[in-house]
Design goal:
- By secondary structure, the protein is of the alpha+beta class.
- The chain has a domain of 96 residues: 2-Layer Sandwich (Alpha-Beta Plaits).
- Helices cover 49% and strands 22% of the residues.
- A four-stranded antiparallel sheet has the order 1-2-4-3, with helices on both faces.
- A hairpin with a 4-residue loop joins strand 3 and strand 4.
- The chain is globular.
- The N and C termini lie far apart (75 Å).
- Keywords: DNA-binding, Nucleus, Signal.
- One of its GO terms (cellular component) is nucleus.
- InterPro entries: bHLH-TF_ACT-like_plant (IPR054502), TF_AMS/ICE1/BHLH6-like (IPR051358).
- It is found in: Nucleus.
């Protein structure tokens, strides 16, 4: 009898863990969708007749910088990542963490630090370099 009670308690705990795990996954997905929607809603979009320009947001911290690039267009963004990474290299930015998705447009979220520790992070300089990279990429792909 005690064994059955123990098994029942274990199964009940396992069920609760499974439900909690599913709930956490759902929250992660909702958060990610909300972040993308907020990014689209708050940034101004400069659109071209044929291809809309990706949205770029750069946020500087004390020693790091967060870069987000989003393009909801269904057009191919083949090669865009290479241009953006080259722009990071030009401004002396080392990427510590990056997440890239090409399934429903293009999404890049990257965290980087400057190669030279003495320098301060300049968000405008990084944003200008990324925008220039996107412009160069779009000129080649037209």
């Amino acid at each position: 009898m005690i064994v059955y009670q123990f098994l029942f308690v274990c199964l009940a705990q396992l069920s609760k863990t499974s439900v909690a795990s599913k709930y956490i996954q759902e929250l992660k997905q909702k958060t990610e969708k909300t972040n993308i929607q907020n990014m689209v809603a708050t940034d101004q979009v400069q659109t071209d007749q044929q291809t809309p320009s990706p949205l770029v947001r750069v946020e500087a911290g004390e020693k790091s910088i967060l870069i987000k690039v989003f393009n909801a267009s269904s057009c191919s963004c083949r090669g865009l990542l290479v241009f953006i990474l080259e722009a990071f290299e030009e401004v002396g930015l080392d990427v510590l963490h990056a997440r890239v998705s090409c399934s429903n447009g293009f999404l890049l979220e990257a965290v980087g630090v400057l190669k030279k520790e003495a320098e301060t992070v300049d968000a405008q300089k990084v944003e200008a370099a990324v925008l220039q990279a996107i412009q160069s990429w779009s000129e080649i792909n037209q």
